[in-house]
Amino acid sequence: MSWQHPVPRITEAERQARLSNLRRLIEANGLSGMLLGPSESLRYCTGLVWHASERFLGALVTPTALYYIAPGFERSRVETLPHLAADIVEWQEEESSAALIARLLGDKGVLALDDAMPLYFYNALAAKLGAERLRDGGPLLNGLRRLKSPAEIALIQYAMNLTLDVHRQVHAMLKPGMRASDVVKFIDQQHRVAGASGGSTFCIVSFGAATSLPHGADGDQVLGEDDVILVDTGCRIDGYHSDLTRTYKLTSGDSAFEDAWAIERAAQEAVFAAARLGAPCSSLDEAARAVLGKHGLGPDYRLPGLPHRAGHGLGLQIHEEPYIVRGNAIPLAAGMCFSNEPMLVFPGKFGIRLEDHIYMAADGARWFTEPSRGPTDPFGAS
Prior knowledge:
This protein is α+β, with helices and mostly antiparallel strands and 382 residues long. Helices cover 34% and strands 19% of the residues. It has helices at residues 12-28, 40-46, 75-80, 97-105, 119-129, 138-145, 150-173, 180-194, 255-274, 281-294; strands spanning 33-36, 58-61, 66-71, 87-91, 111-113, 134-136, 202-207, 229-234, 236-237, 240-241, 244-248, 311-313, 320-324, 337-340, 344-346, 350-352, 356-361, 364-367.
């Protein structure tokens, strides 16, 4: 069915505020500018969406100006796309985009670089400016982007609701004998029908022992009568991602699976309980492993147990800061959004991943979506 609610939007005023925040960081860190590549940070700051190629297209942000750097023949295309108004500075095919950026920056000052830019852009800039004048701009950009605004949280919530509804439809239509590839096609179609014009951004559908492989198995699979089912999928709405996983069986009676499912759900709930403002990200991963350890699973990344981090940040990228992982001392703050997915793997048998996402409100943690209800009744239908 079509998703009927109005889609939230990022306004021009919000993008201007982001640009102002970036400029304050540029000045506070003694920089002359920040060079944004064809990345999600370019979209975040300016609204311009561009995909990387061998020709540089991006934006130079200084304390007082914004310049789009573009191949001459792409200017007309850039002008048709949504973006904050600013001068477009062209370079031609026989020219060097790095030389153009060096001229705009001048012969003094330090330039911070978008950490998503390819290495060959860095090398070209280092040849023109000198490596000593270049800095990693990733920490500054990531520090801005990991604190989501109310509009960003609303967009993620919209996308999550849409994908959760698709999950419900999948659960209702699954029957033994179905091919995983047909389920993937159905999920993509339903994402499009619901308003995600790009369909599924990814989709993992695994049955039986293949569920013990965190990112799925090669080849098609056929659903057996008593198989464990894992479905992990998402979409994008105005650039912002959804990402949800459900694991279940169609019939009850498998005590080994149901007991393991309960442990997985308890680990997920422990992560949520540990998500307190000011708590280090690492403490959430530790909370999940403590639950598994009580049941003789793990420790660390040993299997049966949890083979990877307990979660990842989400926004314009499906995996971004903050990472819910051992050693990450970044404290949780209002506006952070991240997954809660302490997957439980029994090699060669089955895996259980229950993935929902959390956002940190001013008064603490909130779920984007209601966690799964049970091992054979994930959406509370019965």
